[in-house]
Amino acid sequence: MGRLAGRCVLVVEDEALIALMTQAMLRDLGCEVIGVAHTLPDAMKMVQANLHCLDAVALDINLGGEHAAPLAALLDANGIPFLITTGYDDELHLAAFEGRPVLTKPFLAEHLAEALILLVPDAKRRPTR
Fold first, then answer.
1. Residue 1 has what pLDDT?
2. Is the torsion defined by CA of 21, 12, 119, 27 positive or negative?
3. Nearest C-alpha neighbor of 58 from the set 91, 98, 14
């Protein structure tokens, strides 16, 4: 899991316990968690403030009833890879994120690591802050 050491990751999750679990997993994998956003507006602000250093985002698709599609569009527009964390497993909720790694909650640290390694191979590493 050393391949993830120093990677800057943002956690976007509205459920506090899941956010804490994800944050702990990322830190155990050697990632630097730059923050946790619980709402869509907070996530948008955090992404914009950290465009220069974000390596990846762990993104819940339902943030307090708001769909995360606008954030996904912002990430895509800036070339920031992201994975989906969700309790949904149906086409209706996941169609907008086709081709993205999807981790169904609850997920294991090894699955998170595998998805991140695919998203941020060494050659794509962004400059640090």
1. 46
2. negative
3. 14
By CB atoms closer than 10 A (0-12, 13-18, 19+), residue 7 is buried
Query: Prior bond to 106 cis, omega within 30?
Result: yes
- Classify 99 in phi/psi space as left (phi over 0), alpha (psi -120 to 50) or beta: left
User: Tokens 């690591």 sit at which residue?
Assistant: 113
Closest CA to 84 of 119, 51, 54: 119
- Tens of pLDDT, residue by residue over 23-41, are 999 999 999 999 999 999 9
User: 83 by DSSP, 3-state: which?
Assistant: strand
Q: Which residues pair with 10 in a beta bridge?
A: 35, 57
Helix (H, G, I), strand (E, B) or coil at 18: helix
What pTM was computed for the model?
0.88
Q: Return d(Cα 82, Cα 126) in angstroms, integer.
A: 14
What is d(CA 67, CA 110) in angstroms, rounded to the nearest whole number?
A: 27
The domains found in the chain, sorted by start residue, are 2-121 (3.40.50.2300)
Asked if 34 contacts 51 with a C-beta cutoff of 8 angstroms, the reply is: no
